[in-house]
Structure prediction request, 220 residues.
Amino acid sequence: MRLSLAVLGVVGGLVLVGGAAADSGPLPAPLVTDSYYTWPGAQLLQVSPVPWGGGYVRSASPYYVDCPLACIRPFSAGATVTLTAVPSTGYTFVGWQVADHGQAPVSGACPGTGPCTVTISAAKDVVALFDGPPPQPVGEPDRNGSTASKAKTDCQKFGGTFVKLMPPILWGCNDWINTGSADFTAKSQTLSDDCFADGGDGYGASAFVPGTGNSNCFKL
Prediction:
């Protein structure tokens, strides 16, 4: 199993955790790092669509869980979370697997293809299983003849870590460096231009702590 996280700051008793990579146990783990606020006694819910790109998993409003964008989230012990699976185009949702974190899935938990309600009695892993064609590899020439190579070059030039993923997230650039709001805006614009040149349909950037940025390129 693997776990990689960094505590970025404490605000009003909440601890901001950034760059958290999921554990890989009997159930497949999310393929992206995550950032979230947590607190003493909170239990983590880790959600993953399988195959990656086969669909979304969301919790009832408000969307504390919105995977593959937000896949690792803390909840108070005893809370109940209702998850809904939404298949991507060409895929069909076929069922759930639920387990205590790092353990084998529990037989009979969340049968069928309806919403899955999980009681957070301890840290939990949930997998949504989808059936359909395999996602296309990232980095193939898009309609403009571009590839993700320029995005990777720019990401690394900005001090970030470039990660190729499967649709709906084409690629990510994690923890790139900026020196202030103007620099953040300029570098984010460069990465946004790279995203749309790669055939992306959407781009998002955020700064979890001053001096760093995280970007994702989406193919919807």
